[in-house]
From TrEMBL:
It catalyses: prostaglandin E2 + NAD(+) = 15-oxoprostaglandin E2 + NADH + H(+); prostaglandin E1 + NAD(+) = 15-oxoprostaglandin E1 + NADH + H(+); resolvin D2 + NAD(+) = 7-oxoresolvin D2 + NADH + H(+); resolvin D2 + NAD(+) = 16-oxoresolvin D2 + NADH + H(+). This is 15-hydroxyprostaglandin dehydrogenase [NAD(+)]. GO terms for cellular component: cytoplasm. The keyword Lipid metabolism applies. The keyword Transcription regulation does not apply. It is an enzyme of class 1 (oxidoreductase).
Length: 267
């Protein structure tokens, strides 16, 4: 089990919702945490709140839009200057916007790739790094489709595929870095109200009742429950390439088939 005392973590989308919960559980377990978010006001307020609760200088906020390569790189350098190292990197920032779908891809998928490559470059043993762990936040919609949000679904499938491929690369090439994904069902944060917003859902607003019925099948989780899942993926040294599915009736590591199950067809 990885001990978190003295480790340095980075969490994107940390100003509210799941990111805030992830940052807090890492602080509670002894890590120092760099908070990254596009929302400067909420981020700075959270920095003050966390430093008061967990000790001065345990947390620092960096304003970053994860769709900007430059902002991400600049912030990473500043984090290294302040904290000296990065051991844990949680790519959590994500949005739902089916109308501005290229923006959604740039944040939800490209943002995860940007953060992961920055972290990997620093952590990889072949670069003289100390190893570490990366956790990418996908969704249950990265394992099965959410009809109302095809672009969001595509980005989350992308996060799962990217995480699994890179985890395999890390194992084969011995990077010394573990890369895992989280796939929670609905979680009580401001994001779940998106299904009712024409601005975010656009042409798929007619499917709101379909999402509502899915929410009855998968009742909302609390941020604190999902945060325990992050802690498991960070601490358990045996987990690389793991996808943790989380639902109200239980959490579990997803078993992916070694062979593709298929029904034969005549060609
Ligand atoms: N709430 C839910 O039901 C579920 C959420 N997720 C995923 O969890 C992650 C976090 O979502 P929530 O906390 O629910 O959402 P949220 O909307 O409450 O928080 C998202 C945070 O990300 C920040 N953010 C947005 N765009 C950004 C950008 N370009 N650069 C940096 N920060 C940015 C926001 O300012 C906000 O602080 C997302 O990746 C989401 O897809 C996964 C499954 C379920
Ligand atoms: C519109 C609000 C979205 C909030 C953010 C989010 O990512 C929430 C996802 C929640 C659930 C997605 C579920 C998708 C499920 C289906 O594809 C289903 O077939 C998966 C089956 C899993 C099972 O074991 O039953």
């Amino acid at each position: 089990m990885m001990a978190l005392q003295g480790k340095v973590a980075v969490v994107t989308g940390a100003a509210q919702g799941l990111g805030k919960g992830f940052a807090e559980i890492l602080l509670q377990n002894g890590a120092k945490v760099a908070l990254l978010d596009i929302n400067e006001k909420a981020g700075k307020e959270l920095e003050t709140q966390f430093n008061e609760a967990y000790g001065a200088d345990r947390t620092h906020f960096y304003p970053v839009d994860v769709s900007s390569d430059q902002q991400f790189k600049d912030a990473f350098q500043k984090i290294l200057s302040k904290f000296g190292q990065v051991d844990i990197f949680c790519n959590n920032a994500g949005i739902i916007n089916e109308k501005q779908w290229e923006k959604t891809v740039s944040i939800n998928l490209c943002g995860v790739v940007r953060g992961t490559y920055l972290a990997l470059e620093h952590m990889k043993k072949e670069n003289g790094g100390q190893g570490g762990v990366i956790v990418n936040v996908a969704s249950l919609a990265g394992l099965g489709p959410l009809a109302q949000t095809p672009i969001y679904t595509a980005t989350k499938f992308g996060v799962v595929g990217f995480t699994r491929a890179l985890a395999l690369a890390s194992e084969v090439a011995n990077y010394g870095v573990r890369i895992n994904a989280m796939c929670p069902a609905f979680v009580r944060t401001p994001l779940i109200d998106s299904f009712n917003s024409e601005e975010q859902i656009g042409q798929f607003m007619g499917l709101a009742d379909f999402t509502r019925s899915l929410m009855e099948k998968f009742p909302s989780l609390e941020v604190e429950e999902v945060s325990k899942g992050l802690l498991l993926l960070v601490k358990d040294d045996s987990l690389n390439g793991a996808c943790l599915a989380m639902m109200r009736d239980g959490a579990g590591l997803v078993s992916f088939p070694k062979e593709i199950p298929k029904t034969p067809v005549a060609l």
